Amino acid sequence: MTAVAERLSRGAVDKFAARRTELARAALQTLAELGYARTGLRDIAQNTDFSLGVLHYYFTDKVDLITHCVREYKAQCVTRYDDVVATAGTPEELAEGFLQKLAETLVEESDLHRLWYDLRGQSMFEDSFRKDVAEIDLSLERMIWRVISRYAELTGTEPQLSSRVLYALFDGLFQQALLRQLAGDPAAATDLRAAVVQVLPQLVRAA
Amino acid sequence: MTAVAERLSRGAVDKFAARRTELARAALQTLAELGYARTGLRDIAQNTDFSLGVLHYYFTDKVDLITHCVREYKAQCVTRYDDVVATAGTPEELAEGFLQKLAETLVEESDLHRLWYDLRGQSMFEDSFRKDVAEIDLSLERMIWRVISRYAELTGTEPQLSSRVLYALFDGLFQQALLRQLAGDPAAATDLRAAVVQVLPQLVRAA
DNA sequence: GGTTTCTCTGGACGGTCGTCCAGAAACCGT
DNA sequence: ACGGTTTCTGGACGACCGTCCAGAGAAACC
Lengths: 207, 207
Prior knowledge:
The structure is a homodimer.
Chain A: H1 3-9, H2 13-34, H3 41-46, H4 52-58, H5 62-77, H6 82-87, H7 91-108, H8 110-122, H9 127-155, E1 157-159, H10 163-182, H11 188-199, E2 204-206
Antiparallel strand pairs in A: 1-2
The structure holds a DNA duplex.
């Protein structure tokens, strides 16, 4: 049993876990800035108030740390559209709220999103990430499903495609928009909105 | 002027360029196996009949090598569906041929495809790759466009979405299928076929 | 207040990385 | 057969990597 696991299984988990989260959050920021391939533990430590050693004190190894980063990322973004879904009373309102958030996060959190695609790509090579990445992908799929199924409900229609396919389509649109956003294309967000506006009505149809 | 550039600008380019291509091809294979983050120049050299030094003899640095890998990749896959497009006489024939190739490459060239997504992800962090990646992405977009516009032609309809949006949608579908394929899901290819069959007819409509 | 436990530091360790080069080997026209 | 050029080798270089630890400092407990 590692020191970390031992520590976690004991009583006062709160403070220990809190610091882990704090460190994971800092690591997330550094990773989003540099990318997985170019981020070392020293880069991460330098982004905190602590030294390199603490990372090994709170995490067993690099994989453990990055796994917690990924979990932190998930917590941060999986509920992004839930407010909109909960409060929208008309399909137009829902669509507009969804589009707004979509374009907003594309521009303002582009670094975080590119990290997600980076890590999902890593999971195609490294088994250690596969499980967590797959879990997050599923969470994102459900997030999209909540939006679309609610949209269908509000329009009195039903989704014509499975949750999986719907997510794949939106993910493709978002990823292309992100590429253009990061390349400095000022029209990336606008074009993403336009694309979704075009696609959205075709995904649902009268039951 | 570097030694490599000097060599290239002279007369007998053929043999030099041929070896560069040979090395790039070997590098491509190694990268597809290990991924960008875990592939060193020594791994690549070990996959050839030569030593580490030759890599620096034929390429100025790692970026130069990988750039040529990416170009090699492009040459290898951008014409994948052109035969089908050229020979298909009916929409059904085209759709079936497209689906066949799509599922085939998903299974048999999954390593190469995951490398593409890996490198495209890298281009979100590293400027040096951005230009080449964007160019290949455009080539792939046009590849998809040739398929879809021909499909529309054969059905007497017209594409309802722009080339860019169409590519983003297919790319999303393919990437999700690839993730499942690499995770060992035996239904990945079948499900991709099913998804495309569902989506394809919705993308074109009577002019 | 003394002692145990938790937290953190700063540096060391072996290993791998990209880069570079002196010189051997192969190839060339003459 | 020979001198010049191209091609290739094998190893060296400094930098950076993840990991680990001895011990300093802080906190908690008796």
